[in-house]
Amino acid sequence: MKKIILFYVMLFIVTGAFAQGNGMQGITDATSMVTSYFDPATKLIYAIGAVVGLIGGVKVYSKFSSGDPDTSKTAASWFGACIFLIVAATILRSFFL
């Protein structure tokens, strides 16, 4: 019985020795994969900001043409949304890259 236990202990130690590594290659691969997504994601956020800006411009023009009194509030909110998207994309890119 002691021989079997000793065999399994030795097998565990040898297997552990072969399975160990510092994992730097995996971390490096994961980092390069994640950072490769930031450029397309940033461009996508810029495109979404452009579409939001166009929609906002049409809505503000519509309100302005109809004589709605809260046109400036609507313009400020749409403009703020566009600025937020652009700033968020820039900050995320500079923070993670």
UniProtKB/TrEMBL annotation:
Q: Which domain of life is it from?
A: Bacteria
Alphabetically sorted, this entry's keywords are: Membrane, Signal, Transmembrane, Transmembrane helix
Q: Which stretches are transmembrane?
A: 43-62, 74-96
Entry-linked InterPro entries: DUF4134
Could you confirm whether the keyword Transferase appears in this record? no
Signal sequence span per UniProt? 1-19
Does this entry carry the keyword Membrane?
yes
Which Pfam families does the UniProt record give? Answer: DUF4134
Which protein are we looking at?
DUF4134 domain-containing protein
The species is Dysgonomonas termitidis
